[in-house]
Amino acid sequence: MPKEWKDARGIPVTTTPTFEGQPIQEYLGIVTGEVIVGANVFRDMFANIRDIVGGRSGSYERILSDARNQAIEELQAESASRGGNGVVGVDLDYEVIGKTGSMLMVSASGTAVRI
């Protein structure tokens, strides 16, 4: 069984088209969540140093993780507002935006369902 994401309301989210062993009763439409975060100048400076000496950038990884979590939570909230109790077929996208590429957009989309 694929790993599912659940929020405090217990709304499962999966990238697969179904929940194993739980038939979908109703499809409630596409739901989305978008989060745009700005990169901090000091964080950028330390990330550049990290790139020179090697290693992972923990600060950027935390930003990506937080933004992804927020986008998924928006999906869950939108599903709940439509009477859904799950989201299937979730797709996550990452995009660098802004004139200098200093902003990161994380978007999540899926289909709200009642299981």
Question: Quick check: average pLDDT?
Answer: 82
Backbone CA Rg = 17 Å
Order of helical and strand elements: EEEHHEE
Distance between the termini: 16 Å
Category by helix and strand content: alpha+beta
Strand arrangement within the widest β-sheet reads 3-5-4
Overall, the morphology is: elongated
Residue share in β-strands: 35-45%
Structure commentary:
The protein has 115 residues and is of the alpha+beta class. The strands form two sheets. It has a three-stranded antiparallel sheet, covered by helices on one side. The chain has a two-stranded antiparallel ribbon with strand order 1-2. The two termini are 16 Å apart.
Label this structure with key terms:
115 residues, alpha+beta, 3-stranded antiparallel β-sheet, 5 strands, 32% helix
Short description:
This protein is an alpha+beta fold.
